[in-house]
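Notebook entry, structure prediction.
Reason for the run: the old model in the group folder had no record of what sequence produced it. Starting over properly, with the input documented here first.
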Amino acid sequence: MKTIDFNYDLPQKFIAQTPVEPRDHSRLLVINRSINKISHQAFYNLDELLSPGDLLVLNQTRVIPARIFAKKSSGGKAELLLLRRERETVWQALVGGKGLDLGKMLQVDDGPKCEIIEVMDGSRRLIRFENPIEPFFPKIGHIPLPPYIRKTLRDPERYQTVFAQEPGSAAAPTAGLHFTQELFNKLMDRDIQITEVTLHVGLDTFAPVTEDDPADHLIHKEWCEVSQEACQKINAVRKNSGRIIAVGTTSVRTLESAAENSKVTGRNSPLTPYSGNTGLFILPGYEFKLVDVMITNFHLPKSTLIMLVSAFAGKEAIFNAYEIAKKENYRFFSFGDAMLIL
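New structure, fully documented this time:
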């Protein structure tokens, strides 16, 4: 298995620059693994494609306005992209600007001073603010859109899911962007249940794998949590032979991390609560322990995410679906269309 095996050609015209309105009017490519068939639907028909007794698992993380600007003592400009909080005033961040080395002091525009206290790999730094940065977010923070989105987003809430609750992500769990309250109502009317987990999304899961062998790639850790309440719902559904439907790769990684921690081996093997960092990197050959169905967007070439969905549906099936999606003019990446893998 080589990283190049997960590459594909995607002309710029397929990369969605703006979200569809309403949210649930995006397209939905459906892969039915049991009969090896692909069909095309609208996302708002999701309730008709699932079954009573199924359980949707959503990632309730909320994107923070993590892109902030600062100045060096020399007056030069610097940019910080906060990835995750390590302690009350200490954050891991990506930095942009020259000479941002150990001990460098920065003045955040209209905010507190901060110091670089550790130089990590690449442009990653550990930064300590003189005061907690969160109260300044409404005034100084900007939502960090992916670099392939070049159009200005008029409504920042459009890069949040309608069910986002727990602030902490540097990027949105984009499979969840398609849901509306009206669709949730339709799902619940069909006795399709819903529960939430949390994974605060960093940027590394979206970055291309640069190593020749993907097994050599080190995925950075992200914090996730599966609560007691979520475990109870998941265990009850599995006991009654319902399906666990992960909304997005972040929900998949959260559930599978918790399953590994609980040593889940079968439907009668209970899932227990989990909270902590996960560095789970799912490659083809991985044996899924909890997830039966996946809802996901179309992912970047050579990314850990396209490797994950290839592990779930089979690499040949995924790349065949991507070629069909291009022929049918589906929209790719964060603001693009979705895929349902049954």
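Summary: The CA atoms of residues 19 and 335 lie 5 Å apart.
The old model has been moved to the deprecated folder.
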